[in-house]
Amino acid sequence: MDKSLKKYFPLFVLPTLAAFLIAFFIPFLMGLYLSFTEFTTVSNAKWVGLSNYYKAFSSNRDFLNALWFTIRFTIVSVITINVLAFALAMLLTRDIRGTNLFRTIFFMPNLIGGIVLGYIWQLIINGVLMNFGVDITFSAKYGFWGLVVLMNWQMIGYMMIIYIAGIQNIPGELTEAAAIDGASPFQTLCNVTIPMVAPSTTICTFLTLTNSFKLFDQNLALTAGAPGRESAMLALDIYNTFYGRIGYEGVGQAKAVIFFLMVAVIAFTQLYLTRSKEVEH
Asked: Could you give the C-alpha distances from 104 to 18, 108, 109, 167, 200, in angstroms and in order?
């Protein structure tokens, strides 16, 4: 860095640092403190130690049910979204007429807000299920697969664009060399294409993993946790604890801290593993 610029470095960093402290770090510390208290407002918080964390896991099974539901949903969504997005990217990087139009069409669902998207798919799914005399809230299984379909429809196009960028950056010499060596299309896919798009895979896995795990708007609009909160994910369960049970604000805050730590651990673990694979390749 040029010496004449170094003296202005604190000036450039200050706005970002101030925004980080005000919007994230200080609220996070306050939230962490409140998770160890009983409170209705910040000014009347009473220290109760680990009681809220104990209640989060033992007072009812809603939190554990939401955790298991979220884990299953995240695993299925990450696999299906990335597999289908990669397949579409492979298809739309071939010499097919209208590929730009198809790319635009597949990407457009990502521009729709989560609440709107949830209500749209609620109408669609209920329109199908009414032929069988049920709706999406009849069983948690319907809510689970409804959320999977919704999440796939929303995110496949976005992930597809990232995979397309990765595929188009593969040097043509590699695929030509594979063809000269007699490699089949499947062998080229496994030994050239997939290893070369590892950076795109890292990005897409990270985005689908974190977005699936912290899904809220779509869950609220599609099922609102029905029936009996069996289809509630973690974010919705925390919301219900905060705003649906008087005197459980501290428990809700404890759940929020646990939720934050889970997302952070999952995200950093995933990034570490995928980057390690990139280095190997």
From this structure: 38, 6, 10, 18, 19
Phi, psi of 37 (to 5 degrees): -130, 165
Which of 244, 200, 198, 237 has the alpha carbon at shortest distance from 216? 237
The residues, ordered by sequence, that sit 6+ positions from 272 with a Cβ below 8 Å of its Cβ are none
The Cα–Cα gap between 271 and 161 comes to 20
What is the spatial distance between Cα 229 and Cα 38, in angstroms, rounded to a whole number? 24
pTM here is: 0.84
Cβ partners under 8 Å of residue 2, min gap 6: none
Query: Tokens 């905060």 sit at which residue?
Result: 242
Please state the φ and ψ torsions of residue 54, each to the nearest 5 degrees: -65, -45
68-102 pLDDT tens trace: 999 999 999 999 999 999 999 998 888 777 778 88
CA distance 154 to 212: 11
Cβ-based neighbours of 10, under 8 Å, separated by 6 or more = none
Tokens of 125: 């799914």
Calpha distance 17→9 (Å, rounded): 12
Burial (CB count <10 Å: 0-12, 13-18, 19+), residue 197: buried
Nearest-CA neighbor of 147 among 73, 234, 206, 237?
73
